[in-house]
Design a protein that fits this description.
Oligomer: single chain
CATH superfamily of the largest domain: Cupredoxins -  blue copper proteins
Structural class: alpha+beta
Distance between the termini: 34 Å
Helix content: 25-40%
CATH topology of the largest domain: Immunoglobulin-like
Number of strands: 12
Order of helices and strands: HHHEEEEEEEEEEHHHEEHHH
Largest sheet: 5 strands, mixed
Number of helices: 9
CATH class of the largest domain: Mainly Beta
Radius of gyration: 26 Å
Strand order of the largest sheet: 3-2-1-5-8
Length: 334
């Protein structure tokens, strides 16, 4: 990638990188009734703000016209008219607009976008924010995954968001509003996708060095496909049959991998990093930072800090042969 040589371009480039520009996240492209309400409120706010802005320009125009004369055009020299304009445009109209928007957002929109109450018939998914990945659990099953949340399409899903460390913010713009993960609290939000598809999300609260690389994907599937996926995810890892993958399993167990990661069905029960029981079934690695492909996986194992600086995975100093065997084992975990 070409270096940015002009200092004047550095700040805009950094701002674009941190804001996630260029990704398919789009608040104004709703794919649920809740995100549709949010988009509609945004358009109304833009229209009202535009009207207020035009009103301010009109007041500035009036001030310019009377710069060398007494009174106002069309109103003469009446002080009452001048006072009325100031009160109307400076106090009454802004206050009315703010109260109306607050009422719509607080009394209607928040209620419409909130998750179903605990104990309702809606499906529940537990999401835990970590520096820097998302742990995803499905209560009532043994299924655990990371960064990719599978849900049935056209079905209300109650997401319960918590954190294992600092404050994060769970946000899937095309499906609903943000919800913060705060230490010691359980916050919830509704997820509903009106059609199958993959919807990108992001941590929306600065949470440390790799905040910008803490993405997530919501995969909405037809109900039958979702049930089949959930059943597979609940199973323990199958033992490898290929000799190279078996050697990779021994590499995994003999090194720090098994201290930090869980693979159900094996002695590896680490809780520091993501659950890897079915890691090969995911489309990305490192919270959507790189694709889940053998070459990228090998690069991640060799030097994780080169891919995602500041993450908590140490370099293991494995030989090229060991890296290849470990990749073969992890590729087996589907």
């Amino acid at each position: 990638m070409a270096r940015i040589r002009r200092p004047g371009l550095l700040v805009p480039a950094a701002a674009l990188a941190l804001s996630g520009c260029g990704s398919p996240q789009d608040t104004l492209d709703p794919h649920s009734p809740q995100s549709g309400d949010i988009a509609a409120l945004w358009w109304w706010m833009l229209a009202v703000a535009g009207a207020v802005f035009l009103g301010a320009l009109a007041m500035l125009g009036l001030a310019w016209l009377r710069r060398s004369r007494r009174g106002l055009p069309f109103f003469g020299e009446s002080e009452r008219a001048t006072t009325g304009l100031v009160v109307a445009f400076g106090m009454v109209i802004p206050a009315t607009v703010l109260v109306a928007l607050f009422g719509v957002a607080d009394l209607y929109l928040i209620k419409r976008t909130s998750a179903p109450a605990a104990g309702s018939s809606a499906m529940t998914v537990d999401v835990v924010g970590h520096q820097w990945f998302w742990e995803v659990r499905y209560p009532g099953t043994r299924a655990v995954t990371a960064n990719e949340i599978h849900i049935p399409a056209r079905t209300p899903v109650r997401v319960v968001a918590t954190t294992a460390d600092v404050i994060h913010s769970f946000w899937v713009p095309e499906l609903n509003r943000k919800v913060d993960t705060i230490p010691g609290q359980r916050n919830s939000v509704l997820l509903y996708a009106d059609e199958p598809g993959t919807y990108r999300g992001q941590c929306a609260e600065f949470c440390g060095l790799q905040h910008a690389h803490m993405g997530l994907a919501v995969v909405a599937q037809p109900r039958a496909r979702f049930r089949a996926w959930l059943e597979r995810q609940a199973r323990p890892a199958a033992p490898p049959s290929a000799a190279r993958a078996r050697r990779g399993r021994r590499v995994f167990m003999a090194n720090a991998c098994s201290d930090c990661h869980t693979i159900r069905g094996t002695p590896a029960q680490g809780k520091v990093g993501p659950d890897l029981t079915h890691v090969a079934g995911r489309s990305t690695l490192a919270a959507l930072t790189i694709p889940n492909a053998p070459r990228e996986l090998a690069a991640w194992i060799r030097d994780p800090q080169a891919v995602k600086p500041g993450n908590r995975m140490p370099g293991l100093r494995l030989s090229p042969r060991q890296v290849g065997e470990l990749v073969a084992y992890l590729e087996h975990l589907r």
